[in-house]
Amino acid sequence: MSNWYKAINQNTARILEQIKAHDFIKELMAGTLSKEIFNFYINQDAIYLSEYKKILAQIGVKCSDENDTQFFLNAATGIITVENALHQNFLNEKCIINEASVTCELYISYLSRMTHTKSLEEGLAAVLPCFTIYQQIGDYILANQTNKDNNPYQDWINTYGGEAFANSVKNAIEITNKYAIKSSPERIDKMNTAFEKASKLEWMFWDSAYNKESWKI
Ligand SMILES: Cc1ncc(CN)c(N)n1
């Protein structure tokens, strides 16, 4: 498989289109998304990222090439400096939520299972949508919005549409492609499933925030 990512990105394009069409993203782009919904999202994202960075570190530890290990360790610490700082700008101290929503719990648990109990290749494929989808959505909003000067969510948009994030995403794709080249067709199938599931979980994460998802009991 010479360019695994290109193929899976094409095969999961409909999920990306559904994310772009979601009211959360449409309203974020228009700047009309309710503060309450965005606050719910940011709280859940803070919970998600505090686990995701440990998952990235674990992926890094499993890589055989020390440059790849370094990349994932840097990506994990990058979350602490860049994304946590972004969250601090938006977090409303009056309404901090400490409990993970069902979808947040599901996404974290899924990635943790893929990283701790499956092959490195499946783990890489599972964590990749977290990079690629945010870049694609950031770029999409930057290219299509008409309100850069007065969108209350512009800092969020600039973080994921920016060059620094694009470089990190490029590296993550290259590393995953490199492992995919050496993988058997059976393992590629499993990588595809992991990437597709994590992409669906990205859609579900935004959807759960838009609906301020609560535990049923
Ligand atoms: C749920 C989720 N997925 C991805 C990202 C981008 N690192 C994020 N902040 N949150």
From TrEMBL:
UniProt xrefs under Gene3D superfamilies: Heme oxygenase-like
Reaction catalysed? 4-amino-5-aminomethyl-2-methylpyrimidine + H2O = 4-amino-5-hydroxymethyl-2-methylpyrimidine + NH4(+); thiamine + H2O = 5-(2-hydroxyethyl)-4-methylthiazole + 4-amino-5-hydroxymethyl-2-methylpyrimidine + H(+)
Q: Which SUPFAM superfamilies match?
A: Heme oxygenase-like
Q: Which UniProt keywords apply?
A: Hydrolase, Thiamine biosynthesis
Pathway-wise, it operates in: Cofactor biosynthesis; thiamine diphosphate biosynthesis
The Enzyme Commission number assigned here is: 3.5.99.2
Is Hydrolase included in the keywords of this UniProt record? yes
Location of the Thiaminase-2/PQQC domain:
14-211
Q: Record's CDD domains?
A: TenA_C-like
Top-rank taxon, per record: Bacteria
Question: Pfam families under this entry?
Answer: TENA_THI-4 (PF03070)
- Hey, which family's this protein in? Belongs to the TenA family.
Q: What is the documented function of this protein? A: Catalyzes an amino-pyrimidine hydrolysis reaction at the C5' of the pyrimidine moiety of thiamine compounds, a reaction that is part of a thiamine salvage pathway.
Q: What name is this protein filed under?
A: Aminopyrimidine aminohydrolase
Lineage of origin:
Bacteria, Pseudomonadati, Bacteroidota, Flavobacteriia, Flavobacteriales
